[in-house]
Amino acid sequence: MTATVDRSHQTPQMTLSPLHAVLLAGTIPLFLGALLSDIAYFQTYQIQWVNFSSWLVAGGLVFTALALLCGISGLFRAEGHSGRSKLYVVLLLLTWVLGFINSLVHARDAWATMPSGLILSVIVALLASIATAVRFSARRTGGAL
């Protein structure tokens, strides 16, 4: 028995280029590493943990900005007319803005970064994870919906 799938009546699928996938997936370990560094500083007060965290936040901002550019360019294609694409771009933009504020907090003296740096790191890591989950969950493979 042969099964045929008629895709003419389906909504356009959100395609994800390999570069976009790598950039998006790279945000989670960077922001999660910053969160873990902040937790380590909160428990030990070793100043080097804040330095690690600030560099990880900076790397996360670079990856998020590039993934955001890919997401914005996707809005202008046929796939960008779905609400999921717009939600993804809004989540990434919010991640970048709060990550930038987090980097400004981490630029202060090490003693002045707590607890606001830790709270922002938790929020940014969660937003990056949610944005990645929203984008990767939209991918469809095979004939099943």
TrEMBL record:
Residue stretches in coiled coil: none
InterPro entries the UniProt entry points to: DUF2231_TM, UCP029509
Organism for this UniProt entry: Halopseudomonas salina
One Pfam entry name: DUF2231
Residues that span the membrane, as ranges: 21-42, 54-75, 87-105, 117-138
Sequence ranges assigned to domain DUF2231 in this UniProt record: 17-131
UniProt entry keywords in alphabetical sequence: Membrane, Transmembrane, Transmembrane helix
Name the UniProt record assigns to this protein: Membrane protein
Top-level taxon of the source organism: Bacteria
